[in-house]
Amino acid sequence: MYETEINQLTESLGQLPPEIVHSFSELKGQNFSRTVLPWSEHCTECVWPTCYQTCDLYSARPDGKCRRFVDGMVRLDSPGSANEYLLKIRFKQWGKLWTPGNVRMFEAEAAAKREKNDHRVGKLVQLLSVAPLAKFAVQKRYGYKKRIASAAANRPELPTSFLIECHNPESRTVRLSLTMRSSNERSKMPFQKLMELTPGFHRVRVGIEEIIAFVDLQEPFDIELVPNDEAGETTLYFGLMDFVKEAPKNLPATKDEDKNKDKNKKIKCVVWDLDHTLWEGILVEDGVEKLKLKPGVAEIIESLDQRGILHSVASKNNADEAMAAIAKFQLSEYFLYPQISWQPKSQAIKRIAEQLNIGLDSLLFVDDSAFELEEVKTVCPEVRTLNALRYREITDMKECQVPVTDESRQRRKMYQVEMSRQNIAESFGNDYMEFLRHCEIRLNIKPMTEENLERVHELTQRTNQMNFSGNRYDREVLRQILRNPDLESHVLSCEDRFGSYGVIGFSLVNRREPRMTDLMFSCRVQSKRVEHAFLAHIMRKYMTETGKDFYADYRKTSRNAPSGKVFEDMGMEEIEVNEGVSSLVFRKGREVPDDGVIEVIVQEPVPA
């Protein structure tokens, strides 16, 4: 679902290549249920309503809100797709897709009916000719959809995954960030995933286990999709963007179904035994030094990997020794969720299928032992098996003949990112600081120049929650700052392992005192300790250079008060208040607090 009441443009499906249209239609008629999330147009830097008056990028929609997509959300009717339409979105700078989250599931037909009803009502609202009435109707309509979406789910069961269908028509890779964040301010850890969208169609499933490790889906939460591209416009086509509950893949087939079962169903993962299968020799008897990789096996693994066919291991061995041997043959990167223990091979294979979230009937198990092959066939009859004597046949098997695409080449890496996320979920618990360290946040600091002055101007016009001075500079004042030798400017940008935040902060320091007269940050880095890292850096810098106390000005407001706690955290003391501006000080000789969570990288100014 989307803002049908405010988006009137439609375009032809003929603008997309037939193979892309076909890809969007693959889930039509499949047995699954899904949510109907009300996606809308938003801004990553929104400080409504102030920015409507101060931001140069503000462009009014008919309802008065800001137009952050070039043409809004453009509908392409697509009867063959799961929700019977696609959305074409040309993101402007700071544009993002946003929706209140919920896990209220509907059967496919019921979900499609809700989509159709919303489209019909949206078109009726658009027909209202009296501007004030139309604006009122639009606001009421979308407000109603948000309230419904934010209400508690009417069923206790969880979906199996969050699914995104997206086509990238650009000639470059687009990095798209998915974020799910609890509406509860006390919950600081969001779920984040960075998707590398190469040119072409993508269907990305995010397992529900990854998400619930960070977000309580029974409580209010938000979802957003943001292109990590500050260069300008980014065009993407979207199909489904919903939680889904797909039919169980491993239910016993009926007699009729079993009779017609596709014997050539494609293999998604090859599970390898190790001793006398991947290599010649027995690890516990011969030791790693005497093992020899079987001829051609590395090339087979690499060839299948390029096709998007995954690899794993089910072996009765000592795990550490076996992984060391795999590393010796430089194959570690290829094996996902290896199961190396003394448990039955059937248990190991079930565990691999669960971790990869694929059906047992999409696995091929390769082993040299007739006993192990028979044990797996008895317990997991869906799994295809192959005696290791025939390992050279794997790449020519009909079940392994799949097209090689950019997406298939990246499939293993996508799973590895998800493996990392699962490890995060299991290891951090409620340790927020450790989570931040794992994010590998880097803060880059450089001076203001003519090249980045425009971005600084935009930031000063829009920032409220983390603007500690309240100042809003026009461009000429910023140029005067550039010419003032006593004023030192700091422009801050930030990135982490999930993507780039771009330019997120600005600070101004009078070097003579020294006194920080301005400090402001984008709300995108709120609660990530970026402001703490910057203050620690800047206090050390100026106290070292001048040998004096360090001062800061802080105009406290109801909007910036929660973020303003950073000054207290850093040990700054209030010495006076003048016309609403507090003068804070950090005395020289004291140790500057620094939790070491953020890596600070300083780009020194180029000499004139």
Give the structure's gist in a few sentences.
This protein has 608 residues and is an alpha+beta fold. The protein is 29% helix and 27% strand.
Radius of gyration, in angstroms, nearest whole number: 28 Å
- Largest beta-sheet characterization: 8 strands, mixed
Give average pLDDT, whole number. Answer: 84
Side by side, the strands of the main sheet go 25-26-24-23-22-21-20-27
Q: What does the overall shape look like?
A: globular
Q: Can you give a write-up of this model?
A:
- Helix content is 29%, strand content 27%.
- The protein is an alpha+beta fold and 608 residues long.
- The protein folds into three domains: 13-246, Galactose-binding domain-like (Jelly Rolls), CATH 2.60.120; 257-406, Rossmann fold (3-Layer(aba) Sandwich); 437-602, Aminopeptidase, CATH 3.40.630.30.
- Helix 9 (319-328) links the parallel strand 16 and strand 17 (339-341).
- The longest helix is centred in the C-terminal third of the chain and has 23 residues, at 406-428.
- The radius of gyration is 28 Å and the shape is globular.
